[in-house]
Design goal:
Elements lengths: L2 H4 L13 H11 L3 E5 L5 E6 H9 L9 H6 L2 H12 L3 H4 L7 E2 L4 H11 L3 E6 L2 E7 H10 L5 E5 L8 E3 L3
Parallel strand pairs: 3-4
Antiparallel strand pairs: 1-2, 4-5, 6-7
Length: about 170
């Protein structure tokens, strides 16, 4: 199965100029935990997640505590970006810009590995740089539930206390 088989195609999005309060309201009302930020041409500019907004509440971007001496040598552009993330008023001020994304033909196993590796809950699906869908962890579970039953083998997983049967196909 591929991203195109499980992705949500009616994706709720915001523009870079959407006010932060509107983004928060949209997340709550829609029951979602993140929203892609797209420009007028539909190109992905970033993503705003609950985590990005929670950083504003607790006052620490990325919830990282740095030593006072590391703060002294931190580049001014990093300090300015963190300040803007905490005090910005628009989606473009608080969004994560380095977004992990996939193409429509990305296998679900690859998507699962990306979610785990980058510790994200969703990946936008792009076609020619434009947003065409999004795959969340819930979408992956739906794909798993709908996938044809894997061929089974009588080999055990190797754990002494486990009675599971391991799937032989991937």
């Amino acid at each position: 199965m591929q991203a195109s088989d499980v992705m949500t195609t009616t994706v709720i999005t915001v523009t870079p100029d959407t006010p932060v309060q509107e983004v928060a309201r949209l997340l709550l009302e829609s029951g979602i935990s993140g929203v892609p930020v797209v420009d007028a041409q539909g190109a992905l500019a970033g993503i705003v997640s609950e985590g990005d907004l929670i950083d504003r509440v607790d006052g620490e971007p990325g919830r990282r505590r740095r030593s006072w001496w590391l703060e002294l040598v931190r580049p001014p552009e990093d300090q300015a970006r963190d300040y803007l993330k905490l005090h910005g008023q628009r989606a473009q001020d608080v969004m994560t810009r380095d977004v992990v994304s996939v193409a429509e033909d990305a296998p679900l196993g690859e998507i699962a590995r990306l979610l785990e590796k980058h510790r994200v809950k969703r990946v936008p699906v792009l076609r020619d740089g434009r947003l065409v869908g999004i795959v969340s962890r819930a979408n992956l579970l739906h794909g798993l539930a709908l996938a044809p039953r894997a061929k089974r083998s009588s080999s055990r997983c190797g754990r002494r206390d486990c009675r599971c049967i391991r799937s032989m196909s991937r």
